[in-house]
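Researcher: Structure prediction, please.
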Amino acid sequence: MKPAWEDLGTAFEGSSSVLIGDVDCTVETELASQYDVSGYPTIKYFTAETDAKGDSYSGGRDLDSLKKFVEDKLERKCDPTTPDSCSEKEQSFITKMTAKGEEAMTKELARLEGMKEKKMKAEQKSFLFARIHILKALTSTGKEDL
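Model: Predicted structure follows.
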């Protein structure tokens, strides 16, 4: 289970909407109790629809099953053609970049792609990947990659 979980964390490391984390509930007993965790391993997920204690995941424990669940049920990607699906920060980026035109967007996409492997805070990396996703959707070069 642990290798699949670690691989899942790596797969969504740059996600702007998914955070994969883990807690050792044999050590963090108070936290485990707070979230009604009594058996190990327990997988919980949190969305706007779940209550504050999250919902328990009951699907497969292999990487493919976990990844499919995250992609189908948890991951949210901004679609520049429907701004409602985007955060305010993403909407602002879309407005700024579309005003600059195709050439500037293609240049910015190349710059951001070059930054993917650099060390940065999780929030920064998340927004980096969100911008890459947006620019790929907005540029003819990026659309070929989607």
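Model: The chain has a mean pLDDT of 88.
Researcher: Thanks, that helps.
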